[in-house]
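Tip: read the tokens left to right.
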């Protein structure tokens, strides 16, 4: 498959290039290789991710695309420029695609399903999608309410169950970190609701 071969070559090159330097946004003063890599990822790679992660592309292409995304996010975070790259993911509307790829059917399971056969393994959790989602959740301007519109809780639960069934230990840490972030946000909303309710009662009793 030419596309698979191309993605693997790009992934290897990207990993080697990012190993020797920081990924820096041109908007944040990046120069030389940094800016060239950033421009290549944003202008040439990411526009294709909507198709690669859209559900019609067979594995392992979506997982390889997510692996490349994690490579960029990892290096970007080390260079303290992670927030700027998450902005790009939001702008290109890729966050929903990442969430829907938290679990996926492996190639053999997909072939069985196409043939009308039941498969024993079912869906697998994606460590790359979970890691990418964790970067998104960590960004200070990410709207958790917006993520809930993308069925975040159901997708996380589904991926966690798949990881547990297959003992996919590499998925546990990022999935649990994402779950913790969702639970903390829920606790914060409940706490704020009580505060507002208490303030309202205080105001009404003061008025009476």
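Filled-in amino acids:
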């Amino acid at each position: 498959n030419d596309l698979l071969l191309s993605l693997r070559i790009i992934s290897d090159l990207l990993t080697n290039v990012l190993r020797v330097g920081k990924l820096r946004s041109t908007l944040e003063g990046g120069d030389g290789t940094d800016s060239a890599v950033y421009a290549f990822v944003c202008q040439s790679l990411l526009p294709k991710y909507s198709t690669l992660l859209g559900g019609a592309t067979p594995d392992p292409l979506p997982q390889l695309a997510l692996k490349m995304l994690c490579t960029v996010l990892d290096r970007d975070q080390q260079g303290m420029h992670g927030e700027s790259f998450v902005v790009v993911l939001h702008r290109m509307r890729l966050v929903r695609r990442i969430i829907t790829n938290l679990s996926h059917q492996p190639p053999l399971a997909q072939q069985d399903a196409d043939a009308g056969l039941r498969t024993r393994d079912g869906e697998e959790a994606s460590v790359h999608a979970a890691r990418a989602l964790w970067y998104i959740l960590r960004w200070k301007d990410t709207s958790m309410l917006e993520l809930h519109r993308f069925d975040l809780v159901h997708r996380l639960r589904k991926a966690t169950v798949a990881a547990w069934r297959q003992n996919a230990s590499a998925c546990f840490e990022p999935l649990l970190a994402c779950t913790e972030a969702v639970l903390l946000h829920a606790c914060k909303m409940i706490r704020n609701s009580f505060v507002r309710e208490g303030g309202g009662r205080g105001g009404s009793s003061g008025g009476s």
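Residues 2 and 8 are 10 Å apart (CA to CA). The chain is about 70% helix and 0% strand.
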